[in-house]
Specification:
4 strands; alpha+beta; 43% helix
Length: 123
């Protein structure tokens, strides 16, 4: 019973993801900031869909975030957003399109977006 519920949830997220990706594409001048969250960690990547390249990425596993001690997952997400924004600035990226990857825009996903905006990315 639980396995069937997990399948329904995952398939619903993948359906939402396909609908989002039909409209959200990263270009060289405005790459895509994509979020993935697992039960324990959150990952962020900046992707150029035209060249099929991942320009940079970060996760809550990075030492810059883990060195700050015990934090909630939402607080880690905000730090992740600040970190990915700093990495993007090093590459000269200031504008991105945000891809929530089928996840609802609240909690960790919203915290990453807020942190990225604080770090200087605009979307």
């Amino acid at each position: 019973m639980i396995e069937a519920y997990k399948k329904v949830r995952v398939n619903a997220r993948l359906r939402r993801k396909r609908h989002i990706r039909a409209n959200v594409n990263g270009t060289p001048d405005r790459p895509r900031l994509v979020i993935f969250r697992s039960l324990q960690f959150t990952y962020a990547q900046i992707v150029d869909d035209v060249a099929h390249l991942t320009l940079t990425g970060a996760s809550t596993k990075n030492p810059e975030i883990t060195a700050k001690g015990a934090m909630t997952k939402t607080a880690q997400g905000k730090e992740l957003g600040i970190l990915i924004a700093a990495k993007a600035k090093e590459l000269g990226i200031t504008k991105v399109v945000f891809d929530r990857n089928g996840y609802p825009y609240h909690g960790r996903v919203a915290a990453v977006a807020e942190g990225a905006r604080e770090g200087g990315l605009s979307f």
